[in-house]
């Protein structure tokens, strides 16, 4: 047999030569699948370094090596509602913060309703494709924005910072040491901040609808729809995040959306909760997590910022995680 060919059975059952370069290409493809497409975290890493959320609020742990280690684990919970740091952080949720969240939710919902009516009045058969394209662009952008905001709040800053510390960074610190705490938050506490950040965009859209002539609105219709749909997806991000931590009692349509990767799936988001929480930050759909991780996008950003400022990433997060007993 020719050394440059590999025998291969065709449909007729006879042997037919396959060029050697095809075999090399197949080997290269296998190597790519093994290395580049390898999972970011293994099942073992997830098990050993994250709270098992299908056993809600339990301080789930890996089997201890000996009785002394087991006793130490029992005295110092790694995470969950009995963690001292989680309890301290939960106690920092103030009445003033609650009032701010209620006001922002009310204002945001009023603006959303107003802008929705303005858009609905201009929906035509020939601009449906524009609306759908704007929706797709909006959800991809929202996923990246959620990742950028999540990475920033997880990685930098301190709860001791004035204004933003207790009001905006505190929930991120609490969430890492008691991940299922979000499932015990009501709609206001869960969504107050994400609804609040959309208010400037919604205000601008409302002003444009009121002040611009109809010709200008039609000319900008794609961008109007894009910004409106982006605001909707951003506003709903933390509710979607809450659903990704809710393992029981979800409506069937939420489970369907998760299973079909329309919104953040539960199993996918568990990768982020593997200590030290350094990857998979996008929490609207999670579509961008894998490509950003393979590009080492967050790691390279952290290296640049650490070199420029001297600040260590997730230092404050680690401080609260160590307050166990």
TrEMBL record:
GO cellular component labels: membrane
Any Pfam family hit: Lipid_desat
Domain annotation Lipid desaturase: ranges: 140-316
Subcellular location: Membrane
Domain of life (superkingdom): Eukaryota
Transmembrane is among the record's keywords: yes
Protein's membrane topology: Multi-pass membrane protein
Residue stretches of biased makeup (Polar residues): 57-69
Keyword ATP-binding among UniProt keywords: no
UniProt keywords, alphabetically: Membrane, Transmembrane, Transmembrane helix
Region (Disordered): 1-20, 53-84
Family under the similarity heading: Belongs to the fatty acid desaturase CarF family.
Name under which the protein is recorded: Lipid desaturase domain-containing protein
Organism: Trichogramma kaykai
Record lineage: Eukaryota, Metazoa, Ecdysozoa, Arthropoda, Hexapoda
């Amino acid at each position: 047999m020719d050394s440059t060919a590999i025998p291969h059975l065709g449909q007729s059952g006879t042997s037919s030569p396959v060029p050697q370069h095809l075999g090399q290409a197949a080997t290269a493809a296998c190597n790519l699948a093994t290395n580049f497409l390898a999972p970011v975290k293994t099942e073992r890493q997830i098990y050993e370094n994250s709270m098992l959320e299908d056993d809600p609020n339990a301080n789930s742990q890996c089997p201890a090596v000996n009785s002394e280690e087991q006793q130490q684990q029992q005295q110092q919970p790694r995470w969950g509602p009995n963690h001292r740091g989680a309890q301290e952080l939960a106690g920092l949720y103030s009445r003033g913060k609650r009032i701010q969240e209620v006001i922002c939710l009310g204002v945001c919902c009023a603006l959303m309703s107003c802008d929705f009516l303005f858009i609905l009045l201009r929906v035509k058969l020939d601009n449906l494709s524009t609306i759908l394209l704007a929706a797709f662009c909006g959800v991809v952008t929202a996923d990246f924005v959620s990742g950028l905001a999540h990475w920033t709040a997880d990685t930098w800053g301190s709860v001791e910072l004035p204004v933003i510390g207790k009001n905006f960074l505190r929930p991120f610190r609490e969430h890492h040491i008691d991940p299922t705490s979000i499932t015990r938050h009501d709609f206001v506490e869960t969504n107050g901040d994400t609804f609040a950040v959309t208010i400037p965009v919604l205000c601008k859209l409302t002003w444009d609808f009121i002040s611009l002539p109809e010709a200008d609105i039609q000319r900008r219709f794609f961008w109007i729809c894009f910004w409106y749909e982006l605001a909707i997806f951003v506003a709903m991000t933390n509710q979607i995040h809450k659903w990704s931590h809710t393992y029981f009692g979800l409506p069937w349509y939420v489970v369907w959306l998760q299973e079909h990767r329309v919104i953040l799936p539960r199993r996918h988001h568990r990768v982020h909760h593997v200590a030290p929480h350094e990857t998979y930050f996008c929490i609207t759909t999670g579509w961008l997590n894998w490509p950003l991780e393979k590009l080492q996008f967050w790691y390279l950003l952290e290296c640049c910022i650490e070199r420029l400022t001297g600040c260590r990433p997730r230092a404050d997060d680690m401080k609260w995680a160590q307050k166990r007993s």
